[in-house]
Amino acid sequence: MMTNATQDTLVEVKNIKKHFPVRRGLFSRSQNQFVHAVDGVSVSIRKGEVLSLVGESGCGKTTLARLILRLLNPTDGTILFERQDLFAASGSEMRKLRLQMQAVFQDPYASLDPKKTILRVVSEPLVVNRRKNGVNVQEKVRESLIAVGLSPPELYLSKFPYELSGGQRQRVAIARAIVINPRLIVADEPVSMLDVSIRAEILTLMLDLKQKFNLTYVFITHDLAVARYVSDRMAVMYLGKIVEIGPAEEICANPLHPYTKALLSALPSADPRTRHKDVQVKGEVPNAIEIPAGCRFRPRCPHAFERCTVEPELVKVGPDHYAACYLAEEVQ
Amino acid sequence: MKCSIRVRGKFERKNAKLLTVEGLRVYYKTNRGLLKAVDDVSFYVGKGEIVGLVGESACGKTTVAMSIMRLLPTGARVFDGRVLFNGQDILKATEQQLRDIRWKQISIIFQGALNSLNPVLTVREQIAEGILAHETVDKETIDERIDALFKYVGLDPARRMNYPHEFSGGMKQRIMIAMALACNPALVIADEPTTALDVVVQYQILDLIRNLREKLQISMILITHDLSVVAEVSDKIAIMYAGKIVEYGDTFRIFEKPKHPYTRALLNSIPKMQGAKTPLTYISGSVPDLTGPVPACRFYDRCSYAQKKCAEVEPKIEEADANQSVACHFWREIEDQ
């Protein structure tokens, strides 16, 4: 199975769950309810790969990313970073681990402190991780800015975020992420707030940096075309679970889970000649409080049958390709 | 007939111009001087036609829409141009005349529709408000009309007494569309109608837009930054860049053979789902500051084909063929490159 850690596994996610309690009114007598944001995900992230997490809003992709960064503690399950349990790590162990993981967030207008100069923004990981001693902070920041294409760096060091365009800000956010030479970067929708003409530039930059610094990316996006472009493997999430995972190209060409098929067919293609497709899936994603019994996709699935009342597991359906659907199993 | 939505007769010629925008210039007063948000923009919308207005943020597409509705914020001024709707210049209309045009003739689905419903009123009240502001009708008629509208946009009429928070994002967008159709307008302006929606819901809304056009023969201006959305539904597109239309014409023609360097670059910068994975090209640099002096061709700084002439002489939009116009001095020369 996919959870078998091998030499080249960087992060091992083992049946992780995160349920958020639903806050009720003060006098409410109703029982405690939970949003099942991530509901049993196992995946291994390999060294040097780009793994994209795709899915609609509310499918749990951001929660999963935050768990990988240990910005949240799980309800159940565990995550190993280089075979070290993230959630059992002590404060000082965690500090060492944090040096190896960084994040790039969606909104470069919100993720940079407006009161700090670019020098302070980018040097912050060095400061909070106590990496200041013995390094020339300015020099490090300069290198980082050059790496993300903001050169000459002197031009930017004393500027404030408001003086930069959206694309430049996202470059600063990336510079901040790479300044401590992490091994893993979790990028949460890094281009969705940017204009179309800028997106390609940032994506290309991120792929270049990956080569240059031997990075591993977890790339979260709702845009399947972007996912196809950047990633080696793609994991499609639906209501807190991975329903299909495999090589990105293979999933786009040969999707086996009905939900993946629906997502792909719903995608508007940038070509007017391929209009009027038929999307079979109906309705919208149900809320994650009352998860449908059996297969989560059953209420919307055009192919649902009796067996689907029992939740399917991810099974191998092709080389390195797994899907959680009984029909996909039969195809093989 | 009193309750249903009037279907425009087939006798109306499809190519008759419903709305014509001619030489529109809208400038904003800012601290740093005049910002030329829309500068000499012309296009028309035929009857039953969907025209896509495409461009990146701050290219002036929403300003065009707001000028048509005469809803420009203070500080914005129309310096020149005409907006002819059925022969009448909207820019010269009195408030009284505008009341007859807005919502009854031209309605708008605002950007960020998911947040533009009033949370403390039921959706019925909100749709009724728009109807009552323009027509004198009794309660029964309103309810019947809302029922019909709900059916049209694919909502359960029984839910008209619900509040906005009881609906999902896609359903709220359907309510906004129902609201825009409430007074049976001839033209609907949809400003980024699918931007905040997930792919499956986006597909459903685009499908609804297509159906409404078929059934009601409605005309539409679809404003979006997403080329694949216009590829999906629009008949014609106008590509805007820094306040100007740089390319305009038939959707199929433009996607098949884009002529303006900006359109070409834009199309090459979107990752595709079909075909081989090719490296993306991108447009370096950024949009010029529209308050300052801008190069004669506004794309000059970022264009890979730019020549001396482009900085000196402004390219006028010219017909490349019957279905496609382009504003570039060198479109012929670069066509096959």
Report on the architecture of this protein.
- By secondary structure, chain A is an alpha/beta fold.
- Chain A has one domain (9-100, 182-331): 3-Layer(aba) Sandwich (Rossmann fold).
- Chain A contains eleven helices and twelve strands.
- Chain A has an eight-stranded mixed beta sheet with strand order 6-7-8-3-9-10-12-11, sandwiched between helices.
- In chain A, helix 3 packs parallel to helix 6, helix 4 crosses helix 6 (166-178) and helix 6 (166-178) packs parallel to helix 7.
- In chain A, 46% of the residues are buried.
- The model of chain A has no long low-confidence stretch (mean pLDDT 90).
- The relative contact order of chain B is 0.14.
- In chain B, the strands form two sheets. Chain B has an eight-stranded mixed beta sheet, sandwiched between helices.
- The model of chain B is unreliable at 9-14 (pLDDT under 50).
- At the A-B interface, helix 7, helix 8 and helix 10 of A face helix 5, helix 6, helix 7, helix 8 and helix 9 of B.
